[in-house]
Amino acid sequence: MNSPLRPEPARGRGATLNDVPSRFGLATRETDGNWLDNASVVDDPPPPLRTTVTVERPRSIITRNQSPDIPFDRSINAYRGCEHGCVYCFARPTHAYHDLSPGLDFESRLFAKPDAPVLLKAELGKRSYQCQPIALGTNTDPYQPIERDWKITRQILEVLDDCSHPVTITTKSDRVCRDLDILAAMAHRNLAAVMLSVTTLDPHLARLMEPRAATPQRRLAAIQTLTQADVPVFVSLSPMIPAINDHEIEAIVAAAADAGAVGAYSIPVRLPFEVAPLFRDWLSVHFPDRAARVMHHIADMRGGKDNDPRFFARFQPAGPYATLMRQRFHKACAVHGLSRDRIPLDCSQFRPPSDQLDLF
Questions:
Q1: Contact of 194 with 168, CB cutoff 8 Å
Q2: How confident is the model at residue 230 (pLDDT cuts 50, 70, 90)?
Q3: Where residue 334 sits, what CATH number does that domain have?
Q4: Which range of residues forms the domain containing residue 249?
């Protein structure tokens, strides 16, 4: 039960906090003038927490990484922040770079990059550019609700399609099917693959974990739609949270296989930096009966800590519980034929963009 001195969780939002201790001195954000400032001393319910979108003008759009445990070296994020509101999202700390909270700010004060297609075309046109698959959806979801109006992800796909550049997409949204015309054409040329994240089949649990993402049933339907169009689809069971959704491993794998997925991927929950206190508070609000047990299992998997940031260890936690979840996942994949690792996309078809036709 919530304390009478603390506000009710914002309806339709994932995080239960906004004032999160931060590496960047955000402890003073309790006086920023929003409704949470006085929520403990007023009787009236707070107004709905509205989503705002600010235009961001980066100088480049392709992000490079050299992480040895990530299977891609470049990615594009059309948006900063994510309205899906997944409480466990490892990207939440990035909002602190803008002096915003990784809590409710991350899912309600968003940034859009409308120049992304133009910047991408310029970067792909450089003589020094060497083609490798570009990943969409690595930090925030490319098909989160604001994509409906901004359509930046679709414009990025149009550029990649024109250049025959391979792309991978990770999303929790069935909105990806809106771009089926592009994705099917690219997949036919072995240039596209999609990963749909399905963390639970329980609509109530999904609403708590990922309040503004598509329902599990709509995600499974999206897998089926993409598969019928010959777009290869993987399912991501990430994150698996001990004593919250890990009991569904076998059921999710079976449902994804029935929908047509060709492979699966799963990692236990990660709680980097500011995500840990958000997750702890979320547990105390929604699962007070098992909060201590959940955190005990997580610590057991992460060397006694909330998080282990070391390369490889962050994706392959240790301990009996992690080993059991991994064994169950691999067995389920073997039973349902989802043991395929990844699809090697074709980089040989890439052709740099050209503006010559614009002269006619």
A1: yes
A2: very high
A3: 3.20.20.70
A4: 52-345
